Amino acid sequence: MQTVSTLFINGQAVAGEREAFGVVNPATGEAFAQCPAASPEQVDAAVAAANTAFKTFQHTADADRKAMLHRIADLIDAHADELAQLVTLEQGKPMALAQMEVGAAAGWTRYNADLDIPVKVIEDSETRLAELHHKPLGVVGSITPWNWPLMIAVWHIMPALRTGNTVVSKPSSFTPFSTLKLVELINEVVPAGVINIVTGEGGIGRAMTQHPDIRKIVFTGSTPTGQDIMRKAADNLKRLTLELGGNDAGIVLPGTDLDKYVPALFQTAFVNMGQTCAALKRLYVHESQYDDVCQRLAAIAREQVVGNGLEAGVTFGPVTNQAQLDLVAALVEDARAQGAQVLSGGAVQPGNGYFYPPTIVAGISNGVRLVDEEQFGPVLPVVSYRDIDEAVALANDNINGLGGSVWGNDIEQARSVAARLESGTAWINNHAEVLPHCPFGGSKMSGIGVEFGEEGLLEYTQSQLLNISRG
Ligand code: NAD
After folding, report:
1. Domain match, 328 and 271 both
2. Ligand 1 pocket residue status of 423, Cβ below 6 Å
3. Is Heme one of the keywords UniProt gives this record (predicted)?
4. I need a labelling partner for 20 at 20 to 30 A (CA). Which of 217, 284, 407, 458 fits?
């Protein structure tokens, strides 16, 4: 597999100034390629290039920026196979899911291309015309995680470019190659310096969050890192969009059609091997259906074909890195030690790679780490409840508030329960569904701001009120 082995700064492919680092294929546990590593001086060079490019890019005609994003989407489509291969190699997801990720990356890019930046007339009277306009901010720093590397980079970069900002991107050092390729493709379309990429670990991210010439950081990742970014951003009042950790609860109401909904419960909990910010991470089931739901989920778990995502027929890939595998294993061991029952999976698969089969844990409740903490991996704790008030209290008993869901046949009842969830999104009879036109963001410790839709787009802008006196 050919990987991009340069950074892009000011439209140029440049070598990393620090020693390259190996990127591990989680299906083998072996490094499959060397990634260039940026120096702090290269972060400065990337920001300087983006700052210079902003002086002209901010004034490009709206129609030109729309056309650029459409051309980028076409390039993503044209390189879909290569991008999907890179995603599976570096992240581990089965090829069909990687292809979906690439398709979503192109779709999100086109959606952003077609969005309009609104001008709101606040007052149009004899005395004045007051209009609210939106202007780009300047250099946007994008820092991304390892779970959906290509798609999340697109979520950050496209609205930034659409609104006339310039970008410095830093992918996770676990999964840099699909973003490096994306930035190479974008550079075929936009002027030099409009998009730049630097690679490395947290130190490179910190150099960005402390940089005086970056006007906004858009960050997707863990809550502690988001808190660190927020502290550093205070120095020059950077705008922030923080999409952080989640520990999403789902509530199954009594009398729910299990034939219809249990497959979706499984799918939305285990999508991407559970490594999805808004995956279903704790499930609360009424005691009348508890055993049935647990057994059905465990049966679906046992049907999964666990293996290398590049192989045909594999439905379930590895965990993306050793640290995450260790965390998942430790949380399951802790639950077991506290008397929980492991109905499927429950142990690291012997051999190479970071494989942990889908695991259903029953006989557990709040107060056990596996329920209280974000597992971000292929294990779902299932908790029994007696009445709805108890279920809502248990669901809300968490510092996070990204998504939540209610499952049941009676939509009006589900709606009234969903309204009581402390979460940025509440799904009914679904979970983890994100859409380019629906604003998405966290409440409580899950983040600040939203992505997607017009609301998400405008987070990359500074409002300017134009007040024309007619007196
Ligand atoms: P992470 O916070 O460890 O790393 C994310 C990125 O931040 C990486 O590029 C990393 O190099 C960089 N980084 C690390 N320390 C930094 C610092 N001090 N300053 C600046 N940058 C720094 O997160 P992760 O382990 O890659 O991702 C998993 C987490 O992301 C989970 O908690 C998950 O829920 C969350 N996530 C949230 C969303 C969402 O939309 N809310 C989406 C995906 C993932």
Report:
1. yes
2. no
3. no
4. 217
